[in-house]
Description:
Elements: H1 44-56, H2 62-70, H3 81-89, H4 91-100, H5 103-106, H6 118-133, H7 140-153, H8 168-174
Helix pairs in contact: 6-7
Amino acid sequence: MLKWKPHDPPKTTPPVKQCKIGVKDAPHTSAQLLITSSHKNLTLSDWMTIYSYVDSHPDIPQSNMVQYFSTLKTRALIFTQSTLSHRLHDHSKMEAHINSNPTPLSSKRPHIVIVTWPDVDCALYLWVQHMESKGEHVTGPMLQVKHSKFEEEFEVPKKERLPGEGWLQSFCKTYKIQEHW
């Protein structure tokens, strides 16, 4: 049987601290730090904007187009010349996809809610608060029935009334109401 000689444990020395110069340790200068943006995938709408620019400026080199979009003051689009070159090959495919499926772009647009009768919304919101204070849950169908009753009470013209449940989701989101089905 082999026996090992006892050894002293290895001597550990504390790790050497590396000196890093942080922003607060840097000398005063008028130079600005370069803001690097993280890589983000461009949306279909972004690529259509780029394609439109490419179509209207056919003589500009791709590298200049990349520079142009990266330096926009608002909504700068960051991509490489290589990516642009690859995407230009798919240009007709993407346009065909958009023409056959127009809703992906339109669904990204901001949704504008126009309230024509704020008195009805206010009354409905107060009714919801009253029901919750009594400890009762409000359901979608209850909101629809109560909404139509308030429209009658406030004498909203029939052509301006909100039929169906299309208004229900935006109403609940606006007033932070959690409905129970």
